[in-house]
Amino acid sequence: MNVIEEFLNLVLPGICVLCQRKGSPLCSACKSVFSGPVIEVQRSNTDGFLLKGFAVSHYSKSAATLVHELKENSQTSLASAMAKHMATSLAAGLKENNSFRSVCLVPIPSKKTSFQKRGFNPSLLLAKKISNYLRKQKSIKIQVENCLRLNREVLDQASQVGLARRQNLAGAISLVRPPSSKEIWLVDDVVTTGSTLLEAARCLSESGLRVSGFVVFAETLPKHLQKARAAAI
Ligand SMILES: [Zn+2]
């Protein structure tokens, strides 16, 4: 996102990206769609490594639109509303575990080409907004540690499944510097197979750090697993 786009984002009257009502990029009626109960999510790899987390929403059409507008149309003003719901989910989850102390948020890094195209990392932006919201609204201090890096360009994850996806990511993420906090929560916009989050957690745990879980805006499964989930219900 360049300076002009950022400026226009701030000064132009917003139009709700979901219902096109004038006033703000996400009107209060559409915001309330995402006020449902916290969705508990878990993802694991074939080694039995399990990571638990929280999602605000299933990957509905509305959720997909928000994510798309944030990432592909530089609608960064949406990040505050999305992060508010993510912060609420995280705070509710952490309260159950009674552990606000020593927590930090670690965003999933962007691909270099995506960062160059967008000019920002959506996960880092969401993590910063979550931290701001928790500090201002709930007096909870949680640092953001932008400490991970993608070592090389990985192929588009959406086009891959299972083993290919994991192999694509193996060793792709590394630690730039260790975070100062002990309890790490990963932040991303969407979780599908969880391969990226699991690889980030593997990278951090290899350095002796503990990843407690993750928080995302939306969760979904690849189509072949969605059918399996539906059949199991
Ligand atoms: Zn609306």
From TrEMBL:
InterPro entries: ComF/GntX_DNA_util-trans (IPR051910), PRTase-like (IPR029057), PRTase_dom (IPR000836). Belongs to the ComF/GntX family. This is Unannotated protein. It comes from freshwater metagenome. The lineage of its organism: unclassified sequences, metagenomes, ecological metagenomes.
